[in-house]
Amino acid sequence: MTATGRPRVLYVTGWCRSGSTVLGNLLGELAGVVHVGELHYLWRNGVLRQGTNTSCGCGEQVADCPLWSKVLAAVAAPDPGRVARRMLHVQRGYLRTRHTGARLRESAAHRTAPADGAPAVTAALDRMVGCYRAITAQTGARLVVDGSKFPAEAAALLRRDDVDLRILHLVRDPRASAHSWRRRKAYIPAMGVTRSTCYWTAANVASDRIGRAAPDRYLRLRYEDFTRDPRTALARVLELAGLPDPPPVTADGEAVLGVNHTVTGNPDRLTHGPVRIRPDDGWKTRLPAGAGLLATLIASPVLGRYGYSYRR
């Protein structure tokens, strides 16, 4: 919570399999920092139990978790199911990646309601900010890390003056991301190269637009730079977040992760104990040549923008 009483939020955007879970969990080891995973899925997975995973990082069902049960009581009583269905309607209709431009235009115009005449969007944003406030009230957090990775949500939140928003844009080589998506991982099903790389391109281009709209509240960080030198990368993130703390990782990339209260996210969020952050370049030898070429072609319009070579 800032001196003005606004919850401070680090919203992570970009595409999946880019290191947001481990980065968030590392930040969550700092006193007063709470990593909540992908808050976007609180309603579908946690309340309605319709998604890929319904458990909190602490091991409890989200609705039964000591933290989330209190948050839901504060923002969704007396009928969490009804609220959840409304949130899903707005998320699907107005807060997908394709809606980033519209939400940015509203933020630039300082509109309090969306231009497309959907007051439900404003109500959904009220609910999101209410969640951040409830999390802060329950935990005393200085910073809430939300790894939802929906650019339109970050764009919409830019116009809110009741939240201190910072935006971290994580990028990973699209071929590494495609390689990771080819394998099923616990409760997350596999995804084909074409689909994953199309999503990669759309999410990162949309996130770039947010950076241009709010450069003073935005940082782009490559997964490769984070894993190569995690202390330096985390120091940059902490500077963006306005926290003076030292990075919670050794010079060798070692850290110890405790229990967290993350919603959905990479199954690695359930891993506790010692970890070591190091580069993962296995895709360079394991990704079939045809799949690598396909991912390169799809991402080629923006590949160089992030410093990635067109060759392996």
Q: In words, what does this structure look like?
A:
This is Sulfotransferase family protein. One of its GO terms (molecular function) is N-acetylglucosamine 6-O-sulfotransferase activity. It comes from Polymorphospora rubra. InterPro entries: Gal/GlcNAc/GalNAc_ST, P-loop_NTPase. This protein is α/β, with parallel strands linked by helices and 312 residues long. It has a single domain, classed as P-loop containing nucleotide triphosphate hydrolases (Rossmann fold), CATH 3.40.50.300. 45% of the residues lie in helices and 11% in strands. The chain contains 13 helices and 7 strands. It has helices at 20-27, 43-47, 68-75, 80-94, 100-108, 119-139, 151-157, 174-181, 193-213, 223-228, 230-241, 283-286, 289-303; strands at residues 8-14, 33-35, 143-146, 164-171, 218-222, 254-257, 273-276. Strands 2-3-1-4-5 form a 5-stranded parallel beta sheet, sandwiched between helices. Strands 6-7 form a two-stranded antiparallel ribbon. Helix 7 (151-157) packs parallel to helix 9. The longest helix is centred in the middle third of the chain and has 21 residues, at 119-139. The radius of gyration is 19 Å and the shape is globular. 47% of the residues are buried. The model has no long low-confidence stretch (mean pLDDT 94).
